[in-house]
Amino acid sequence: QVQLVESGGGLVQAGGSLRLSCAASGDTFSRYVMGWFRQAPGKEREFVSSIWWSGRTSFGADSVKGRFTISRDNAKSTVYLQMNSLKPEDTAVYYCAARYTGGLKYDYWGQGTQVTVSS
Asked: What does the pLDDT profile of the chain (119 residues) look like in tens digits?
């Protein structure tokens, strides 16, 4: 199984940028589709984006399209979420997750990293 550790969260002003990283270890990185989720206070967890080994991507909420970019460095077993033009409504705990290619459920989760966007 894979272990995931996120980093890169913090406090940023509206309009700013942050890059989240998620380092994977413990298993073959290529076996997994990597995803980012977020959960704001009082709200359900929301799917943000995912990326396959090949680089194919998908996005969840329309609100992040054009502002967030997911990428992965397979040599470093790391997935990134570049977040630009941040808005206060992007404030949330961001989680990295992994699922087996072909699987339906994300089985492995990181501990989360807080992103706070001030207005």
From this structure: 899 999 999 999 999 999 999 999 998 888 899 999 999 999 999 999 999 999 999 988 888 999 999 999 999 999 999 999 999 999 999 999 999 988 889 999 999 999 999 99
Cα–Cα dist 73/2, whole Å = 16
Q: What is the DSSP string of the chain?
A: --EEEEE--EEEETT--EEEEEEEESS-GGGEEEEEEEE-TTS--EEEEEE-TTS-EEE--GGGTTTEEEEEETTTTEEEEEE-S--GGG-EEEEEEEEETT-SS--EE---EEEEEE-
